Amino acid sequence: MKRLAILSILGLFSVNALAETEAKAFSGFYFGGEINSTKQEFSIPYSELRVSNLSGDFTANGSRAARLGIVTGYGFDYGADFVGLAEAKIAISNAKTKNELGKVTKEKFATSLAYLQGYRIANKLLPYVKVSFDASSFDVNNDAIYPKNGVEVANAGAWGIGFGAGLRYSVTPDFNLGVEYHKVTLNGQNDIKIKTNNLGLIGTYHF
């Protein structure tokens, strides 16, 4: 009888220890990498180009291109399987927009600071939504912007707010894989606007 009681107590401790270990999924500091498929659309009002006989915007569209970056963050376990992630990213980019005159913009690098709110399922899955502050640096080819009446669009940065959603999977207690959709609207000098749609694959290691 005593042996049975001891085994029961040890079993209870083991279950509690396992539960505590499992509760750490997606929490704590992490570091990893991300590859993105990115599509962008560039626009600038004709009024900024000093064109009086046209209304609306000059636009240029891009095709899918690659971004390659690093990601780091910290996961907060709020209890009841609610997990929040504070996350930062920086990436080099090959995303371009073009028209019949050639390349209009080329993104050089992109950065993002984000908060992700998720709900842990079976200690393996973390679906989440996110909000972010994003900034990017671009090269602008003014020769492909027509008509512009002597206006030079600055080769400067653009920034804005993004929204997204994703899913992360705990492959092991320390390694996660995830997919994410992220949509951003960036604004810059001369009232330029760059709309970005990203589809990413993320791998992170938790410390």
Low-confidence parts: 4-21
What is the overall silhouette?
elongated
Report mean pLDDT, rounded to a whole number.
Answer: 88
Supply Rg. Answer: 23 Å
Structural class by sheet pairing and helices: mainly beta
Report the sheet with the most strands, covering strand number, pairing sense and barrel closure: 8 strands, antiparallel, barrel
* Strand proportion: over 45%
Number of helices: 1
Task: Provide the helix percentage.
Answer: 10-25%
The beta-strand count equals: 10
Order of helices and strands: HEEEEEEEEEE
**Order of neighbouring strands in the sheet with most strands:** 1-3-4-6-7-8-9-10
Distance between the termini: 43 Å
SSE order and pairing:
Elements: H1 2-22, E1 28-45, E2 57-61, E3 65-79, E4 82-93, E5 96-99, E6 102-119, E7 125-140, E8 157-170, E9 175-188, E10 193-206
Antiparallel strand pairs: 1-2, 1-3, 1-10, 3-4, 4-6, 5-6, 6-7, 7-8, 8-9, 9-10
